[in-house]
Amino acid sequence: MNTPVLVGIGVATQREDDPARAREPLDLMLSAVRNAGADALPEPAALLAGVHRIGVPKGRWRYRNPGGELARAIGADHAVSLLASVGVLQQTLIGDACRAIVEGDADTTLVVGGDTGYRILRAQIQGARAHERQQDDAPLISLAPKDELLHPAELRAGIKMPVGLYAIMESAYRARNRWSVDEHRDRLAAMYGRFSEIAAENPAAWNRRRIDPDTIRNASERNPMQAFPYTKLHCSTWNVDQAGALLFCSAKRADDLGIPLEKRIYPVASTESNDMAAVTSRGDLAACPGARIAARAALDAGDLSLSDVELVDLYTCFPVAVEAYAAEIGLPLSRDLTVTGSMAFAGGPYNNYVIQATCRIAELLRQGRGRHGLVSSVSGVLTKQAFGVWSREPARNGFVLRDVSEDVNRATKTVPIVELATGDAAIAGYTVLYERGEPRRGVAVVDAVGGRAIVQSKDPTIMARMESVELCGTVVRLADGSFIM
After folding, report:
1. Domain 423-484's class?
2. What is the CATH number of domain 4-147+238-411?
């Protein structure tokens, strides 16, 4: 009777231009929680008051203990609160919520997250500040990654945001498939054009307007280049006000409360790898063995194959996250790889998208759109990988929680990162970083004497060449952290 069951899903969205009128993140999360309760039962007060554990992934807010505040608001005063910082897989909180039920630590758990990036943006435009309530207490449990997300050498090369590193991996993926630069850009545009069509059919999507591939592919004033070949429309849209909540309880409590069977979605498995390796140090920039290992473990837990999974949502922070995961798992890029419409169009609330995607998967499973769903999670610049498998029926082997970090560590080849490399080196991956729509520096990860190095060039001629022809494998000359051709 300790089988975990997803009984309530709740999403909340606002698009208020006046930041003084817009709800702050905690209130948006509370709306999602109450929506999840109402989704499970017409009168959910007893269900919500019985929540024993609340997990929250950190957003762009300053609350110290949002889980505790939410617990008090729903009458679950004694609930254990967890706060996971950026760099902790969102699937980790989902797995923890299910584990607590299986092990008898709780019979009702909640995972909730939310962000109000649009509210922050509107406040900045108006020269104001998006105020939040203050909290003095702390969560009972705090989770944080073991390692830094970016290597100091990457920071010194001017890569302050993940988009640059993802674009470098993208070039390696393109070179592996032997596509020309233009052919590859066309493929990315077509894939994201399809994502926008899916978002148009998602009632909870932030942008439900269909966007044609040419508009996505080509830089413009409204769609500036971020890091070649990524325009803004290839990247996660995080200036959104969105929240999501997943409400779990044991099968026994679901029976006792009379939650209808048609409401119940069953977690089959939650698998994750927390093995971290800096992008520059990865032996194969286009590979992601953790995705293959974690996905296989999740499917094996339910005695499932890919053909059994009708609904898939791959984490869509940047295109290579989709492509690399699909390649490792064995999913063709021709099939639909998102149920929301992607983080670019459905919305990528800061550190909360996996909850949104899981809500959508559960909704579609309830509608009979499939029997099984697979949701992936990414963290640490494609370092950490995780998967959740969901079903309309109880799992054959019960819920399985597995950490495959050691397996991934053994399968991941790394090379040392060297500082101030000199001599000749071969390009392993590269991009051109943009600021305010203008190219500022070309950055390349190179195989140099003694290991890997990350170098840059501000030569306009070199940057133009980096955007027109394939340079992976090209030998360049290094000096003082720069490269020449």
Report:
1. mainly beta
2. 3.40.47.10
